[in-house]
Design brief:
Length: 283
């Protein structure tokens, strides 16, 4: 089961990073979104990020041009059908993801592997809505994708070994490291990271610290590259809240209760960097 053509669904923050690293590793990438503006923006970001890599001598101009030439785009989801692997990186809502997989199924090759970049939703449940739960994986990249070393690979209950190994070979070819996680809410990274971020929001909510002191404490006191509130803005507060809700619902433990202040920010539309306002003001 050798993979060469990869479809990426969703041209947002994660989708453009995934297309970027796949193309640089030599894969033929087809990027899909429902909006042409999203595709145009993604291609522009990919080019700028690759230019930065050229200027820092991480890649050559020839490698950039070849990689950009390997990325094509489409507004028609079903054009991705003939891919060897499809990585869904659409919005973190289960109904959206399920609808994408259901639309794709009639157009797939028998051997196509389906995967989702979900940061918390059950892989087993997503897989059960397709015709191929044995060829379905959780393929979870970290943000920013071109920089972060880890990819979490999550097997659903029915995922077979050949599928896991084919995906692990892709991760290896990207020069990244795979960590294998079992399919329980939010897997490994977000099971640990999100309660920490949520606790930082509680610390703010209860007045123990302010935005600056909380972030400085964790940067200088725990050597984190970003403070938890800065990181929450970077990930997106809506995504953070969605993951806390998956933990709270899936594990039924009050220790995962989303902080009311996090909920309030999301209700205000203050989603972090992407809306120019979150715990910090980026305007
Ligand atoms: N594409 C390509 N390269 C990029 C990039 C991008 N999008 N963003 C940053 N870089 C490169 C820079 O060019 C720079 O390269 P050099 O080392 O060659 O100079 C390097 O990354 C460092 O970037 P900067 O100098 O601009 O800034 P920095 O040193 O402050 O690092 C950071 C930025 C890498 C984002 C760092 O702050 C960091 O690691 N933050 C934590 C990120 C993190 O925790 N991510 C995980 C989030 S959780 C997640 O993703 C899971 C989920 O499901 C929610």
């Amino acid at each position: 089961m050798e993979i060469q053509t990869i479809g990426v669904v969703g041209a947002g923050q994660m989708g453009n990073g995934i297309a970027h690293v796949l193309a640089l590793a030599g894969y033929d990438v087809k990027l899909n979104d429902i909006k042409q503006e999203a595709i145009d923006r993604a291609l522009d970001i990919i080019r700028k990020n690759m230019d930065r890599q050229v200027s820092r001598e991480k890649i050559t101009a020839e490698e950039r041009d070849a990689a950009l030439g390997r990325i094509s785009s489409t507004l028609t989801l079903t054009d991705l059908g003939p891919s060897d692997l499809i990585i869904e990186a659409a919005t973190e809502r289960e109904t959206v993801k399920t609808a994408i997989f259901e639309d794709l199924v009639p157009h797939l090759k028998p051997t196509t592997i389906l995967s989702s970049n979900t940061s918390s939703i059950s892989i087993t449940r997503l897989a059960s809505r397709t015709d191929r739960p044995e060829r379905f994986m959780g393929f979870h990249f970290m943000n920013p994708v071109p920089v972060m070393q880890l990819v979490e690979l999550i097997r659903g209950i029915a995922t077979d070994e050949a599928t896991y190994q084919a995906c692990a070979r892709v991760v290896e070819r990207l020069g990244k490291t795979a960590s294998s996680a079992e399919d329980f809410p939010a897997f490994i990274v977000n099971r640990i990271l999100m309660p920490m971020i949520n606790e930082a929001v509680y610390v703010l909510y209860e007045g123990v610290g302010n935005v600056k002191s909380i972030d400085m404490a964790m940067k200088l006191g725990a050597n984190h590259p970003m403070g938890p509130l800065e990181l929450a803005d970077f990930i997106g507060l809506d995504t953070c809240l969605a993951i806390m809700n998956v933990l709270h619902d899936g594990l039924a433990d009050t220790k995962y209760r989303p902080c009311p202040l996090l909920t309030k920010y999301v209700e205000a539309g203050w989603l972090g960097r992407k809306t120019q306002r979150g715990f910090y003001d980026y305007r």
